[in-house]
User: What shape does this take?
Amino acid sequence: GTCIITDKCLPVGFVYPPSLVPSSSDGNIGIPPLSAYNPTVEPLIRSPRDLQSEDKVWDACMTQMREPLGFGPQSEGFCRYSHRGQCAYNGVYQPPVPLEDSGFGRFFLFGSYNDVWE
Assistant: This one.
């Protein structure tokens, strides 16, 4: 059979091109590539078939990501640290993002969340 890996954060109907499948099981250096486990077929990464609308995809993705990002029931909660009533992300205060018309300039966000739970 086919090895199917579903990711609820992929758009409806999306199938990850096999040429872009990461060479390791979780994208981290030092983790054996999937080929080390002798799969009989290449894995197919796609959105779940039971999610047929963008609203369902958004809800499922948010549910899937809540715990690793520190929003789930097992975490201490999103607001375990606050500053003047504002919540923090993973216990670190995050100042508000300036509005575009504030004269501050454009804001760009870059980030990674693969080590948040460590």
User: Anything to note?
Assistant: The first strand starts at residue 4 and ends at 6. The two ends are 34 Å apart (CA to CA). The mean pLDDT is 63. Residues 74-118 form one domain.
